Amino acid sequence: MGAPKQKWTAEEELALKAGVRKHGAGKWRTILKDPEFSGTLCLRSNVDLKDKWRNLSVTANGWGSREKARIAMKRSQQIVKHDNSPKAVSTSIEDSDDEILDIKPIAVSSENIHVTGQKRSFSRIDNLILEAITNLKEPTGSNKTTIAMYIEDQYWPPPDFTQLLSAKLKTLTASGRLIKVKRRYRIAPTSAFLKGKPSNISIYEGRQREPSGSVVDDFTPLLRSQVDVELARMRNMTAQEAAAAAAQAVAEAEAAMAQAEEAAKEAEAAEADAEAAQAFAEAALLTIKNRKTADLIVRA
DNA sequence: ATAGGGTTATCT
DNA sequence: AGATAACCCTAT
């Protein structure tokens, strides 16, 4: 009987992206037969993969460019027959649909970041992170793995990109640009000029829906967001301070570095409530890195 | 088997 | 009502 609509889960989406990364876009059958992904994608057909990839491309690409205008135009043209484009500025230029360029600075960013980035305390990677979170459009925010995958997908990955990303995420969170809730990052409501509402996000994971009956007020969302900011920041601060203190005690040995990395990975793999563990690991990692090679971290 | 266009279901 | 995502159909 009717299969209503089987929405794609995050795992399936991740598997699809990984599959495309491995085998390339278009090799849907190959991806589907790969034992790595056949487990999570067993309920999907090659056509499903193709369609999903198309949807992902559409949503991830030109939101803020002219792709939206194109789609909007096409939508309107379903009924309207005439195309009145008086200026018709650049529609004919053909879409060189690559905004995935000129990120190269981040590889050598360790040394030449100070050249241009004096006014803003924003380096290239900061913008990348914000862009990733924005384009991912995940209602509950995006976790580090997803953000890393997005950036690695679109751009090219430096060797120790994961560590750099961790450091940057932490910095952005501490400065209030990002909000971290349950291992997921959102863009702070300070820049809530995006569109729509700040969106009250349920702290709980899973796909439960919120009762949409509580739309009584237009002022509460802002307050709620503010509270969330304070809460998240206070939480992190406390955890980080404690973790930093503990980390300094063990930071003497080089082995601690590997240990911290292991802890970070495990904390992330386990979806459990290991927030403290991860905070500890990150703090320890940062501390050690600061002590050993301070120039590895991009300063702005 | 894949790409593209078209249709329906779901959410705001 | 509009927009988006899943689904369906067909030509190559």
TrEMBL record:
The record, for CDD domains, names: SANT_TRF
SMART domains given for it? H15 (SM00526), SANT (SM00717)
Q: Which residues form the Myb-like domain?
A: 5-57
Q: Which GO terms describe its molecular function?
A: double-stranded telomeric DNA binding
**Gene3D superfamilies in the record, alphabetically?**
Homeodomain-like, Winged helix-like DNA-binding domain superfamily/Winged helix DNA-binding domain
Q: Which InterPro entries match?
A: Histone_H1/H5_H15, Homeodomain-like_sf, Myb_dom, SANT/Myb, SMH1-6, WH-like_DNA-bd_sf, WH_DNA-bd_sf
Keywords carried by this UniProt record = Chromosome, Coiled coil, DNA-binding, Nucleus, Telomere, Transcription, Transcription regulation
Per the database entry, which stretches of residues form a coiled coil? Answer: 239-280
GO CC list: chromosome, telomeric region; nucleolus; nucleosome
Q: Which residues form the H15 domain?
A: 121-189
Q: Where in the cell is it found?
A: Chromosome, Telomere; Nucleus, Nucleolus
One annotated GO biological process: nucleosome assembly
Highest taxon above the source species: Eukaryota
Read off the Pfam families from this record. Answer: Linker_histone, Myb_DNA-binding
Task: Name all HTH myb-type domain ranges.
Answer: 1-33
Assembly: Forms a homodimer and heterodimers.
Q: Which PANTHER family match?
A: SINGLE MYB HISTONE 4, TELOMERE REPEAT-BINDING FACTOR 1
- Protein name per Swiss-Prot or TrEMBL: Single myb histone
Q: Which organism is it from?
A: Musa troglodytarum
